[in-house]
Amino acid sequence: MRALLVICLLPLVASAGEVTGYARIAGGDFITALKYEDARGPTKVAPFDIMRRPVTNAEFLAFVTRNPAWRRDRVAPVFAGPDYLAHWPAPARLSPDGLGGQPVTRVSWYAANAYCEEQGARLPRWFEWEYVAAADETRRDARRDPAWRERILGWYARPSSRSLPRSGAQAANAYGVRDLHGVVWEWTDDYSALLVSGDNRNQGDPDRTQFCGAGALSIDDRENYAVLMRVAMLSSLGGSDTTMNLGFRCVREVR
Amino acid sequence: MKRLVSLLPFVFVFVLAGCDRAQRAPDAGAAIPAQVTTGGSKGGDFGPPQGEPVKAVLTSPPFVPPATGRTQPAKVIVELEVIEKEMAISEGVRYMFWTFGGTVPGSFIRVRQGDTVEFHLKNAPDSKMPHNIDLHGVTGPGGGAASSFTAPGHASRFTFKALNAGLYVYHCATAPVGMHVANGMYGLILIEPPQGLSKVDREYYVMQGDFYTVGKYREKGLQGFSMEKAIDEHPTYVLFNGGEGALTGEKALTAKTGESVRLYVGNGGPNLVSSFHVIGEIFDKVWYEGGTHFQENVQTTLIPAGGAAMMEFHVEVPGSYVLVDHSIFRAFNKGAVAILKAEGPEVAAIYSGKEVDEMYLGDRAQPNLAAVANAARSAKAGALTLDEQIKAGQALFAGTCSTCHQGNGQGLPGVFPPLAKSDYFAKDPTRIVDVVLRGLSGTVKVNGQAYNSVMPPMSQLTDDEAANIATYVLNSWGNPGGRVSSDEVAKRRKEAPVAAAAPH
Questions:
Q1: Which domains does chain A have, with CATH numbers?
Q2: Distance to chain A for B423, nearest Cα, Å
Q3: Which residue from A65, A83, A173 is spatially nearest to A129, judged by alpha carbons?
């Protein structure tokens, strides 16, 4: 029934290659690549809606214009570092070279969070993001396919000095969601709970009890190091940090 | 007090050397007899840093920063930037390297034992990955790794005291560690002993690493990293200084005859252990494992992954000296080759170059060909036996035919047809004479397998020789037997013109 609903929503997506709105994710049981001390067996993922593509510069500009407190020249430094939106020519203006359609990057977690809140949404939790991102164009869980992994890793090997593509320009995955891989990293709501040690070799160290409970995390699926690298990336960041390759999308809870 | 005690052995040697500075320098490296220890890290703290902080000179490979020249502990500031960049791994082959300082291996760092090192690790804003650094010369958990975990566009700082002298590897330790190392994130830090190292004419920095690309060796284009090959430890490339040709041709290391050369050689791995060797040189000294003591007169030294060694040699004779991993397929099939080109006048008293180039027949000359001579004598007397023919044929076969058909007549499957138990000859034993005289090209089927290669005519053989070879083959390896006479060969030779023997 839910699958039918997703299909029904598809024609509502705006035409001419423009992808907007949210896709409905039915949720279900999911084996995560991460291993939490207190979690055994599959993780339950509740239904949610997720943006079909990452938020763009143009969309974020509209947000900043509505909420000037989030302009780069007005934002409180604790919420966004000095590189926040530094690629924009002015605090509330974009260059006309296609920047508007590219995924927004150089956004802090706080700014991304505020954007989603304004939309009546929130940032995806890691499990939600991982659940949707496990799909390829035809399968909802393509993680066992080496080709899927190679494609993700291919992006890691591409220099980020090259210009980003338009947001939503890649083919949609089995859920109708685009650009989860291959364009930008994405913030998650609970990124700060992804406590991967800065030194990857400490797994099994008695010291790890310092990260109690859910934080004590290690990688269950060692083959799936593509995910490991994303988690390592997120865990290297603070909430006010931004990078040239880090954007976000929002999710809405289904009531 | 501790500091004073630790310095005593050096002072002692210094006095022995007659306080002559010029004398002292060359001997400094030899200052520590094998039985005496340096005191390790406990003897490496010479107190708080003295004077103004010093900015460390970093160099790109293959160059090494100058000696610190310091006699007191200093505060040394090291600034190293992580840069992810696409570079050539081989001609026409690109690879996305992750680097310390924009090169593979990363910048060479040189400090003195007892120095306090303030380490700044910067991660370029356009990096995709977070990175950190583990310096094997650091005393402390993780070698600095956890303290230097740095997101793109960030910089972090930590400070350590260099307590142990030696040559140490540094590398990135961010998840997945193996991948960061395999992408080129390693380099060397030299912690000079307090008395410094002896003066040499040239110092070079070479580091071996193994690389794992999705495509085959030398497959063109941008090649991605293959985790599968890395886990299997099947490298596509094994390289010195991060690229095929990084130290050859125009970029070869150079020296002049009469000079002494010191190499600082590290092995970043991630997987392979190096059997480091310089073809045509003998290391006068090897500070094995990068430590304090040296071995003398060494041909090949083992450098573990995540380890290093220093070696010195004196160049006597000009020419190209080839640095290899003597696990030799890595050198000639995976790229682990570098050149040190030495210029200067020839020194014939030490190495003459080629003096003689003449034929050498070895043991073919006597015992083997005795059988041939025997057969020839008997044939002349009209008393040639089958056994004599076979023995002569065997000797001739070994010289002429076995290169391709192998000594056991088995040939090489798909390339050179077998003569053993050959259905080709079983069908018509007389064929063998024609094959020997005229060669064979085009497709033949032997024992169920098709062959399509060219055997040149063996028309250089005399009638006697051809007859003996044919007889030997027919009577060996399960073939049907029979006997070919010299007259028969002469007849076959006359019946159809035989092409002149091609160079074989």
A1: 21-194+215-253 (3.90.1580.10)
A2: 48
A3: A173
